[in-house]
Task: structure prediction
Amino acid sequence: MTKVQNNRAWWLVLPVFLLVAFSAILPMMTVVNYSVQDIFDSSTRFFVGADWYRQILHDPRLHDSLLRQFIFSGCVLLIEIPLGIAVALTMPTRGRWASLCLIVMAIPLLIPWNVVGTIWQIFGRADIGLLGWSLRELGVDYNYASNTRDAWVTVLVMDVWHWTSLVALLCYSGLRAIPDAYYQAARIDRASSWAVFRYIQLPKLKSVLLIAVMLRFMDSFMIYTEPFVLTGGGPGNATTFLSQTLTKMAVGQFDLGPAAAFSLIYFLIILLVSWLFYTAMTHGDQK
Result:
């Protein structure tokens, strides 16, 4: 007897394909089209091939912004991943305190990005901000608007405050998924806390940490709103990241062709580095 396949379920997936095509594929094809043309107005444009790509790849703005972006994303990962793991390990596992901790940890994630920038903009001011006023009273010369080091530290601390909760919650869920039998065996063997973490918790968290690293890298590499609101990319270009450079090129200068080529190179960099992260972590897990 031949089994009849029912393909009606594909009709349920069709709206998703249409939504993705409308929101992602069509805009990307438009960007690809812009990246190979020199556009003067809606009716005047000339095909230039890969000229814009060559120009962008030799543009010092791309090199400087890319270096700042990698440094920032590297600092974010080096701070937030270990800190998120440490916070998850100290959170209670049951009872009212566990629920309270989960609520408190979720609060920063619910705040819109532009509001986060505004909060830290006020928080860091020496005249009305608690952080700026406290540092001034302690004799620390702090001014994120004019000092490059202070601007960098403020943007980095702001991102850590905003997104460490995500890493902590992901790690917390991974820790709760570890069967209790592993901990019972560790107690029988009288394993130390470090041994439990090294040989039980950390290996079981690898898949969760892969997700956390990927999410935090992609998000930090595309950061725009928070530093734009806080420092405007300054002082000078000290906190001008790739997204801000792209915005200035597309909106400020209205160079649609170079901006389209810049955005595709930007996308390919994120895709490449994310693939490298994924390959390295999964290959290490297979070993």
Observations:
- The longest helix spans residues 60-90.
